[in-house]
Write a structure and sequence with these properties.
Length: 219
């Protein structure tokens, strides 16, 4: 059963980025989360491991039953830390992401503008390190086809933007394809055109498919 009912853009793994700015250290960590509680637990974990830090500022955006977006400046001047972190997340259109930026003060004041830039840059670095992906709820479909037609089918799948999960070469060539359920009739029509009216496909089930920025399926 598919957990998500809509596509979302998130991050692949935990990300890390260290920014040194006028002797202050900004340590950014990003994590993919599936619930608000998971985001809160991650924030508390970072706070516990950096109790000696000057600030542990954070933001998260979680799209579960509803959209939850929260941030904290953790003692920095209002609007200079948590909000810039959240704005980076929103600008990248990411969901189910939590970011904590830990600051160790180096003795030189950065000013409001400097803080906004530093927290935003640290957040962006951690998100880039984590890698952006799409998670899409899809049908998983197997398409068996004769060898002499497999090239045409492969080209069609690529040209039409279907998500190709894999190709198995045995007595026949079997393609694994992922697609939103509303696109199934379109796929069927293309198969009929290629095979001259023979429709062979099997719906295996539904799953959340992770897709990288190049459109490739991530296991």
């Amino acid at each position: 059963m598919v957990e998500n009912t809509k596509s979302l853009k998130t991050i692949l793994k935990e990300g890390y980025f260290l920014l040194e700015e006028k002797r202050s250290s900004f340590i950014a960590r990003a994590k993919p989360v599936s619930s608000e509680q998971e985001a809160i637990d991650f924030i508390q974990q970072i706070k516990a491991s950096h109790r000696d830090a000057t600030h542990n500022c954070y933001a998260y955006s979680v799209d579960a039953d509803a959209l939850y977006q929260r941030y904290s400046d953790d003692g920095e001047p209002q609007g200079t830390a948590g909000l810039p972190i959240l704005e980076v997340i929103k600008k990248k259109e990411l969901q189910n992401v939590a970011v904590v930026v830990t600051r160790y003060f180096g003795g030189i004041l950065l000013g409001a503008g400097g803080l906004v830039r530093a927290y935003g840059k640290a957040c962006a670095g951690a998100l880039e390190n984590a890698g952006e992906i799409w998670i899409k709820p899809c049908l998983e479909i197997k398409i068996p086809i004769e060898y002499h037609l497999s090239g045409r089918l492969r080209n069609m799948l690529i040209n039409e933007g279907f998500i190709l999960g894999g190709i198995d070469y045995a007595q026949e060539v079997t393609f694994t394809v992922y697609l939103p359920k509303e696109q199934k009739p379109i796929l069927e029509k293309h198969i009929l055109d290629i095979t001259g009216g023979v429709l062979r496909l099997e719906v295996i089930g539904t799953k959340n498919v992770k897709i990288d920025k190049d459109g490739k399926v991530i296991d």
